Amino acid sequence: MRPLLLLGLTPLLAACTPSLQGQPAPDVVAQLPTPADSAHVRVVVMGDQGKGGAVQKQVAQAMQEVCAAQGCHLGVALGDNFYPAGPKQASSPLFQKLFADLYGPLKIPFLVIAGNHDESWVVGGDGADAAGAAAQVAYSKLNPQWVMPARTYRAPVGDLVEFFALDTAPLAPYLPPVRPNEFPNGAWDRAQRAWLAGALGRSTARWKLVLGHHPLFSNGKHGEAGHYDRFPLAFQRGEAARQTYLLACGKADLILSGHVHSLELFAPQTDCTGTWQLISGAAGEAGGPKFGQRPAVFDAFGQAGFAWLDITPQVITVRFYAAKEGRAMQIFEGQIKK
Fold first, then answer.
1. pTM for the structure as a whole
2. Which residues pair with 111 in a beta bridge?
3. pLDDT-above-70 percentage for the chain
């Protein structure tokens, strides 16, 4: 559903030249246990899972199968944890129904970020009210399996890998944000951008992975950052998201995203050298067909599923799994090498 465009605000919302001026966001660090085998960190990656239907349950069952067979130390949830809109209170029973009941049996912590549906205001998915993200941060104090100490944070796992979690919903909202300082290229955006640049620069981890709900590149229906959904206004098209991700290009090894209900893997591109991108946004439904033509190492459209990573000092092994009647079927394996 496409929200009504507030065309009268076009002059106010015109995109400004992105800047790193301003104070960085607080440097919040999530504390994670180091696996007994510090040379292997195995991560299961899901996105856009919060549909609450049969597909979400089947994918969760398939994830349990893979984690039991291959091992999982950590999970990543890439946003849109709730549909059509995220709860505004941490006490909402939706946390139990759509997270704890389904993923609690995995017995691993999940690094969580918010998506545009989690931050809904008027229309589900408009991404204009960060109160939904605040509720998810608050829930992390109630359930240690849900790791989200702030909307923007980092999570090192020993010296092997460090995750950098972003909130991209304010960078590509469909409607003007409730809080003026959260407009794209506003104070909040600049602070997050400055934090990301500084945190990546200071990190000594072997691998650096950035988590953001909206993708930089995608061949799915939403398109790519700066061109999302072919909206008429720059703030809706995600130019601010593109500028944020460009800060990671060549500094991070991999960007993990959802938003598009597909499974995609891109090698470094000429417009983002040195950094891979993985999309795992099919944990709640089998999305629609392929639209774009950007060269991909792998993509799967119209299939529900998830990704699994085996991170070692020299190689990240990437596997994609489709969920078929609650069972996991491997559909791709590849490697990212140092």
1. 0.93
2. 76, 147
3. 93
